[in-house]
Amino acid sequence: MGIVYVYRRAHFSASHRLFDPNYSDEKNLAVFGKCSNPTGHGHNYYLEVCVAGERNPSTGFVIDLKKLKIILEEQFISFVDHKNLNTDVPFMKGINPTAENIVVQCWKQIAPHITEGKLYSIRLYETEKNFVEYRGE
Ligand code: NI
Predict the structure, then answer these.
(1) Is 82 one of the catalytic residues?
(2) DSSP state of 67
(3) Is 126 a catalytic residue?
(4) Span from the CA of 35 to the centroid of ligand 1 (angstroms)
């Protein structure tokens, strides 16, 4: 036996603006930099989702990757792809769309649907060089 870590990558494109509505545009620029551009900007985001667990003795799978693909698509990607994360996404309402906040909301969306193995980590790449990882609470 032994725990195996299974990964699935996914991609989406979305726009956002990082800002605190209580700050002036100048202060938002100072705190959030270019990501506080008042009319927004876009990113090509990449996700890496990891499910960990024992292999099912009959299938040899920890989780059927076809099922993981569908869960990701239905519970997360379909809500965010080609959307404005500040205004269009119900589970991002009122949440500043930093990579940190997006990855935690992604976890909340998909964790309840993972019934084989256990959701272990989600990594979100906002750019090639900037990425975050969440492993649950
Ligand atoms: Ni940005």
Answers:
(1) yes
(2) H
(3) yes
(4) 4
- Expressed in angstroms and rounded, the spacing between residue 121 Cα and the centre of ligand 1 is 22
Q: Could you tell me the residue ranges of all domains in the chain?
A: 4-134
* Options 26, 74, 126, 128, the catalytic residue: 126
Class of residue 92 by CB neighbours under 10 A (exposed 0-12, middle 13-18, buried 19+): buried
Q: Please identify which residue in the block is written with the tokens 């040899």.
A: 60
Beta strands in 54-100, from DSSP E residues, in sequence order? 83-84
Catalytic, 128? Answer no
Q: How far is the CA of 79 from the centre of ligand 1 (A)?
A: 18
| pLDDT tens digit sequence for 22-53 | 999 999 999 999 999 999 999 999 999 999 99
Query: CA-to-CA distance for 54 and 60, rounded, in angstroms?
Result: 9
* Integer CA distances (angstroms), 120 to 8, 61, 91, 104, 106, in order: 12, 16, 21, 13, 13
Whether CATH 3.30.310.260 fits 4-134: no
Whether this prediction's pTM lies above 0.70 is answered by yes
Catalytic residue among 41, 54, 74, 82: 82
